[in-house]
Amino acid sequence: MSLTYILAFSIGIQISAAIMAFRLIGITGRRMAWIFISMALALMAVRRVIPLYHLLSGNIPISPDPLNEFIGLILSLLMVVGIALIGPIFIERKSADESLKESEEKMRLLTETAADPIVMIDDEGAIAYWNPAAERVFGYEAREVMGKSLHLLLAPERYHDAYLEGFARYRETGCGPAIGKTLEMGGVRKDGTEIPVEVSFATMLLKEKRHAIGIIRDISERKKLEEERVKIEEQLRQAQKMEAVGQLAGGIAHDFNNILTAIIGFSTLMKMKLADDDPLHMEIDQILASSDRAANLTRSML
Question: What is the residue-wise DSSP string for 171-193?
Fold first, then answer.
């Protein structure tokens, strides 16, 4: 291969490598590094343009060494191959970074717009994430709770011993009473008021450390509705009992009224048959008076 072809190939390859390196500036984000690499490759190409020009014009003040230029051509080829191989790696990495950022943004939007508190605790049990819903429900801003123990901060004091025991088991085994389950317990707001909550946690590994992410739901309204439902059901049962008693009392009153009608009727007939001076008049009057009081009672019952 003649020296002219070697120089021409070297220039073409180095310019191609410079262009490829320059294109990687926007992909990798390492702007200064790739600018310097592309400038170095461009200068190497310019350095060979001068002897190529002299060869083509026939004015050769210093004849280039063919062996050195051939080695330069090989190096240029290696540079192009290296840049061509490393470029897709950076492209894939950038694509992966963009996908990761997109996923993180989606996760951020989901957690920040969630209606329920979402929290994350690290392997020490300290709060590592606190979404806006948690701020609304518990009254603590994120800056107030980050790094503090979740359960010792939010759980009533009567649960603290059980929590410490359960968390120690969780650190050893990755299992706990709230992991993968939904539990009802009490939670404490910043102002000290206690509210019923539902808690569910799942574990994950971040930087080779076990973390737990949990969803906490304020069920105060649900509990209130349940209490009202129980109260209404109890009132309904009482009303049904009273209705049954009323029906029974009405039936008894009707039957008793029929009996009283017979007593009053026969007593009146008996009184009509007695002589005016018969001493039984007094007893029959007592029967009629008592029967009249009983009739008034049955009317009241009805």
Answer: HHHS--TTBTS-EEEEEE-TTS-
| Identity of residue 156 | P
Report in angstroms the alpha-carbon separations of 212 from 129, 162, 206.
10, 18, 10
Q: Which residue has the tokens 């650190």?
A: 171
Contact 83, 24 (CB under 8 A): yes
pLDDT tens digits for 135-185?
A: 999 989 988 889 888 887 888 888 787 777 777 777 777 676 667 778 888
pLDDT of residue 245: 85
Helix, strand, or coil (residue 223): helix
Cα separations in angstroms, 28 against 31, 80, 274: 8, 17, 128
Nearby residues of 48 by Cβ (< 8 Å), 6 or more positions away? 7, 10, 11, 14, 69, 72
Looking at residue 1, its pLDDT comes to: 46
- Which residues, 6+ apart, have CB-to-CB distance to 204 below 8 Å? 210, 211, 212, 213
Question: Is 17:77 a contact under the CB 8 Å cutoff?
Answer: no
* pTM value surpassing 0.85: no
Place of tokens 């009567």: 158
Q: Are 128 and 121 in contact (CB under 8 A)?
A: yes
Kindly state the average pLDDT of the residues 125-134: 89
Contact 137, 221 (CB under 8 A): no
Neighbours of 47 (CB within 10 A): 13
Please identify which residue in the block is written with the tokens 């009081």: 293
pLDDT tens digits, one per residue of 192-217: 888 998 888 888 877 777 788 888 88
